Amino acid sequence: MRKVVLITGASSGVGLALCRRLLEEDDALHLCLACRNMSKAEAVRTSLLASHPAAEVSIVQVDVSSLPSVFQATKELKQRFQRLDYVYLNAGIMPNPQLNIKALFRGLFSRKVIHMFSTAEGLLTQNDKITPDGLQEVFETNVFGHFILIQELESLLCHSESPSQLIWTSSRNAKKSNFSFEDVQHSKGQEPYSSSKYAIDLLSVALNRHFNHQGLYSSVVCPGTMLTNLTYGILPPFVWMLIMPIIWLLRFFANAFTLTPHNGTEALVWLFHQKPESLNPLVKYLSATTGFGSNYVTSKKMDLDEDTAEKFYQKLLKLEKEIRVTIQKTNNQN
């Protein structure tokens, strides 16, 4: 039986590169592309099948920033599949990123210059907005939409005789200082992206605590600093080209500059081959690239603990319950 791999955000960037690399590893897979834009998804499907005709590639439409879209997608997936072996929770946004010029120049003349460029810590702010579901867009897209996806697909994921894996695209930019339990959606801050990635780390740890005994395991990955549509939103492409020589030089001092989506998928592909039971749930797996362009995987213990993760998980369950009650009331009124 073919293993089934579901990938959100599969039509571009890391998601697209991951599709290509997984089929290079095993063209007997069934890839299910979970995408918002169906025309892009169809083009990707056609391209993948042209290069890997032995594979199966299907599409499900889902916008993780819209709960009705998530509910509809999970309904379709439960009709199509009996189980999911891997779910790559990769879709994410960083809306309207603004570069903090003062922080940039302060960092350039400090001992933390390499760390600053590796993590973008303190460099980026974003302008968030409210979705039609009444949630902060970054939080819903990067965290809560995926959480609901998992909740709805539990029956396809929990099979103790054969484990399933959740693999989240997190970030080195996931900072505890940008996350607050009093404001888990980061509605009052200016770094919702960093907050959402820290929330992902917390959620992954809690999911392991609750579902490992049912055969479901969760890991988090950072693909490194890459040139994608997301990073091109920070600076124009021509600026990136101007600073590229500096970035290439920094690669000899910091392994986070993977630069391409292909390189960035190194840790995601590595996890595909691991026995999930052997992985440390408190560790983040990092894609890394040497100054000479060789890719490898490293790891780093996350700045969190299981009790904190559990507290966040309970907050998400409470929010889910409130939203389901609201949806039920709306349905009854209609």
From TrEMBL:
It comes from the Eukaryota. Its EC number is 1.1.1.210, 1.1.1.270, 1.1.1.62. GO terms for cellular component: endoplasmic reticulum membrane. GO terms for biological process: androgen metabolic process; brain development; cell differentiation; cholesterol biosynthetic process; embryonic organ development; embryonic skeletal system development; estrogen biosynthetic process. Pfam families: adh_short (PF00106). It catalyses: 3-dehydro-4alpha-methylzymosterol + NADPH + H(+) = 4alpha-methylzymosterol + NADP(+); 5alpha-androstane-3beta,17beta-diol + NADP(+) = 17beta-hydroxy-5alpha-androstan-3-one + NADPH + H(+); 4alpha-methyl-5alpha-cholest-8-en-3-one + NADPH + H(+) = 4alpha-methyl-5alpha-cholest-8-en-3beta-ol + NADP(+); zymosterone + NADPH + H(+) = zymosterol + NADP(+). The chain crosses the membrane at residues 230-250. This is 3-keto-steroid reductase/17-beta-hydroxysteroid dehydrogenase 7. The lineage of its organism: Eukaryota, Metazoa, Chordata, Craniata, Vertebrata.
